[in-house]
Amino acid sequence: MTIPELDFLKSLTVLYVEDDPDIHARLDFFLKRHVGTLLVAHDGAEGARVWTERQPDIVITDILMPTMDGLAMTRQIRERDEEIPIIVTTAYNDEEFFMRSIDLGIDRYVLKPTDPATLHRALSHCARSLWRRREKETADRYVRFVLDIQPNLLLVTGNGQLEYINQAFLNFLGFPSRERFLASGIPLESLMQTRAGLPLSGVGEPKAWVQTLLQTAQEDSILFLRRPDQDDPGPIPFAVTFNALPDLKKHIFSFADVTHLEKEKQELEMKAFTDSLTGICNRARLQAILNTELRRAHRHDLPLSVVMCDIDHFKKINDVYGHQAGDDVLRHMVGIMRVNIRAEDLLARWGGEEFMVVSPQSDLESTRLLAEKLRALVERSAFPAVGGITCSFGVAEREPGDTIRTLTERADKALYAAKTGGRNRVEIQMSIRDDAGAPTHAAPPASPG
Prior knowledge:
By secondary structure, the protein is an alpha/beta fold. The chain contains 15 helices and 18 strands. It has helices spanning about 5-10, 20-30, 45-55, 70-80, 95-105, 115-150, 165-175, 180-185, 210-220, 260-275, 285-300, 315-320, 325-340, 365-380, 405-420; strands at about 15, 35-40, 60, 85-90, 110, 155-160, 160-165, 190-195, 220-225, 235-245, 250-255, 305-310, 345-350, 355-360, 390-395, 425-430, 430-435, 440.
């Protein structure tokens, strides 16, 4: 043994159980020279009682003893402590004894008559194993301590399964201890969901959630956690990072609450993509959504139509009633339109007094009817300060090869036709084809007010 291990052996408490007084006296003297504290018992029943009272580090016991034999005593000890090293000194060498000993997890056997040197080697082996186990336990306690003092939520996985969850994570979940959380039977992965709202518990195999967690940390980095209690306010966003320990097949995941960042992001997106006057999408956001819808319509050959709307004589409203009244008209008209279009339709401000409705999976005739409905509603409505107003509408449907520009140009051309045709009307604009049959789109003139 090395010096640290020898010192460790001299710090241990050993229980020695032997009913033969001669052997007991001889080995008692020998053991006291090599261990820190020696406890003695003369049969299995006394040995079991001493073990219960003193909790020694190692047990050395004979087999054949009165009252209770060594194997019966060992069975009682093993039921309460599966890890304690046990050395058996015995004159038995039959197969049945060894099979029973294996079942009980005996660490070392020393045949009688007991040779002190052989017993010392067995004792040293058990002490070495115990020392290494306690070194590992000390290291594990230190690691757990380090994990538990971290403010971020941490979890450790190994071989695709949860191994450890730190105190900050337990506090977030509302559990005072890991034992209470494990006893609840709640799978941790069921409390996690991706940005798309999909729970990690629904990804297939039981271990698959760890791979999904790794993928999320690598690609999106945002994961949502919810508390299991009924007062849970909803999923909370966390930034997820991880460190891999390949040799141990473990991963350490860290979750940092980014609620304030997500709110700031949403506020910035709101400011960047929302019209400040009317509260609907602005032109920048409209372009992005229309581009997405146009690609989907092309890919699946779906109908897609747009409506261009312009308030008639809006300049006159501003000149006569003032710009504040004009702003009120714009807001009031948006209120009428947004509650009279489908949930899947998008209303956006195109610019000035012009608005656009993007209507996915709606053909030209269906969208024309929608525009006619909106036109009639606006005409029948009373607007603050100015009374009644009218609007003109232009409708166009997606055609193969359309871009945002060609589609909106046709809608604008239809709107121009409605304006020049007397206003307060709906017009549709079909593509103009040249002699070769290819669609052409003339640039629309400026729309009258």
